[in-house]
Design goal:
Elements: E1 18-19, H1 22-32, E2 38-43, H2 49-55, E3 60-64, H3 71-80, E4 84-87, H4 96-100, E5 107-113, H5 119-130, E6 134-140, H6 141-148, H7 158-166, E7 167-175, E8 180-181, E9 188-195, H8 205-215, H9 223-226, H10 232-241, H11 255-266
Parallel strand pairs: 2-3, 2-5, 3-4, 5-6
Antiparallel strand pairs: 1-8, 6-9, 7-9
This protein binds S-adenosylmethionine.
């Protein structure tokens, strides 16, 4: 961290639990495998504890922080590191492309200990708008469990399919509440997303994800009930080819099977 934070009043409403565990900071950096000539985006740098580690890799770091009260510690880092740019804006509202245009880089990383009150909107914006090569984030454990869940498990749902559609996701480590100040109410986990080399052949991914959301709409219901709006005869025909039928639930269908079903159903 940069500067003295003794007088700082942490805002729970902004998810301000600052990481104070060097061991975890090192794990985030090591697992990210940051190559030179990269640009690293950080969301919510806080007082800069993770930022400093990112800057020491020698790559450019572009950070978005909503809280103007953190100007003092972060501007100390700007003075110290010419490779640091901090923008005091709401990450969810900012047009990141405008800032990205200024940089040239070979690989794009998003590495962050994010504010948990906006976990899903942040993940969605990172994947849909930034689409980095590597995305390493600290999030609450329950969301982490859903993101990495595989078929036939309790946590597998539309969020798992959405994230794993473009990324291979692995767990870096669990993080105890004691690693933060102030101590949060929930346990955390660090996940690493690595962009898949091959994309699935679907033109309109928004429509595909609507289909996925419909398939998982009511957890206890089977595909016949959740997908009643679609051509059930065609769906059943496809399911037969993979030895399944309409009594199966969405949680029993893998991403590849969903993709193939969707292409069979819509022709794209
Ligand atoms: N990165 C620091 C660390 O690891 O110690 C702080 C992490 S803290 C969990 C989350 C940070 O995100 C806080 O600094 C908070 O002010 C900031 N934040 C909250 N909402 C934000 C938003 N919409 N856009 C950008 N930053 C935000």
């Amino acid at each position: 961290m940069a500067g003295n934070m003794d007088q700082f009043k942490f805002k729970k409403s902004l998810g301000q639990n600052f990481l104070r565990d060097k061991n975890i900071l090192n794990k985030i950096i090591n697992s990210s495998n940051i190559s030179s000539n990269s640009l690293i985006i950080e969301i919510g740098p806080g007082d800069g504890s993770l930022t400093e580690y990112l800057l020491k890799t020698g790559n450019n770091v572009l950070a978005f922080e909503i809280d103007q009260r953190l100007k003092k510690p972060l501007e100390l880092l700007v003075k110290q590191f010419p490779n640091f740019e901090v923008v005091f804006e709401d990450f969810l509202k900012v047009d990141v492309d405008i800032y990205l245009d200024k940089y040239s880089y070979e690989k794009l990383y998003v590495i962050a200990n994010i504010p948990y009150y906006i976990t899903t909107p942040i993940i969605t914006k990172v994947i849909d708008e930034i689409n980095p090569d590597i995305f390493c984030i600290m999030i609450q454990k329950e969301v982490g469990d859903r993101l990495i869940a595989k078929p036939n498990s309790r946590n597998y749902g539309s969020l798992s399919v959405y994230a794993q559609f473009r990324y291979n996701i692995s767990k870096v480590c669990d993080v105890s509440k004691n690693s933060f100040f102030p101590k949060p109410d929930v346990d955390s986990v660090v996940l690493r997303f690595e962009k898949k080399l091959l994309n699935y052949d679907i033109d309109d991914t928004d429509l595909f994800f609507n289909f996925i959301k419909d398939a998982f709409k009511h957890k206890r219901k089977n595909l016949k009930n959740n997908l009643y709006k679609y051509d059930l005869v065609k769906i059943e025909k496809f399911l037969k080819t993979i030895n399944k039928d309409l009594t199966y639930r969405a949680e029993q269908i893998s991403i590849e099977e969903f993709v193939n079903l969707y292409i069979y159903l819509t022709g794209k």
